[in-house]
Design a protein that fits this description.
Helix content is 38%, strand content 18%. It is built from 11 helices and 11 strands. Helix 6 packs parallel to helix 11. The mean pLDDT is 90. Pfam families: AIRC.
């Protein structure tokens, strides 16, 4: 939507010839920003409540830099970049505030949003090898304005480690359970928690783990109620969904 079109729309609202609801709908459906290498959905924050996120995998450092600067210029003040390499982070032009989180392979342009809801998102992993996916989930949830607690390396091979964190499990508003191998962690957590559990299978494991497929199928077949499953290694999707649930004020 051009400046003149926006002014005309606002003038129509001021004059009473357009309702506020109609104006908001038109703004939500406003055109994208075409910068040749990408078509940026600059009104996504208005439409969905969360601005566009940059998926870094497959993009060159120069492309990430251009997209991030275009979103910043358009007024987006918190920009999450997932699957970002150290090379891309080093190449980002530092005329805008930027923080790189190496464990999560993620970057944030601008600043983290202060937690704006009361609930806690608990991120649990089966093993230390699952931490990169867990950190992607945690950084995503934090970037979207959630309080996040981390409990790592509490897999079912030593289940007493998990049970020693029962208080955190019971207090959480949403839990993200992340595991590879056979993926049993999600079912155990689902059997302990009275809140939604988002299961994330990881590609960690030996041959018949099939790059996370075994954990994925195990989690999909969980007998615990209230367990949902995202794709293999999809920490971002889990963190995003957890934020949506947490901001809906799910009571525990």
């Amino acid at each position: 939507m051009t400046e003149s079109e926006t002014r005309a729309l606002l003038q129509a609202v001021a004059e009473g010839s357009s309702s506020v609801e109609d104006a908001v709908m038109k703004l939500k459906m406003a055109p994208y920003d075409d910068i040749d290498i990408a078509r940026l959905d600059t009104h996504r924050g208005l439409r969905q409540g969360i601005g566009e996120v940059i998926y870094g995998a497959g993009k060159t450092p120069e492309q990430i830099d251009r997209i991030a600067h275009a979103l910043w210029k358009d007024g987006q003040r918190t920009i999450l970049i997932t699957r970002m390499t150290q090379e891309a982070a080093d190449a980002l032009t530092k005329d805008i505030p930027f923080t790189y989180y190496s464990d999560a392979h993620a970057g944030v342009v601008g600043s983290m949003i202060e937690p704006d809801c009361e609930g806690t998102v608990l991120v649990i992993t089966g093993g230390t090898s699952d931490i990169p996916v867990a950190e992607e989930a945690a950084i995503t949830a934090e970037t979207l304005g959630n309080k996040v607690e981390r409990v790592f390396d509490v897999g079912v091979a030593g289940i007493h480690r998990l049970l020693s964190n029962t208080d955190s499990i019971m207090a959480a508003n949403v839990i993200i359970a992340i595991a590879g191998m056979e993926g049993a962690l999600a079912s155990v957590v689902g059997g302990l928690a009275d809140c939604p559990v988002i299961a994330v299978p990881t590609s960690v494991g030996y041959g018949t783990a099939f790059g996370g497929v075994t954990a994925l199928l195990s989690m999909l077949n969980s007998c615990a109620s209230g367990v949902s499953v995202v794709n293999i290694d999809n920490g971002f999707g889990a963190g995003y969904l957890a934020s949506m649930i947490n901001h809906k004020g799910v009571a525990v």
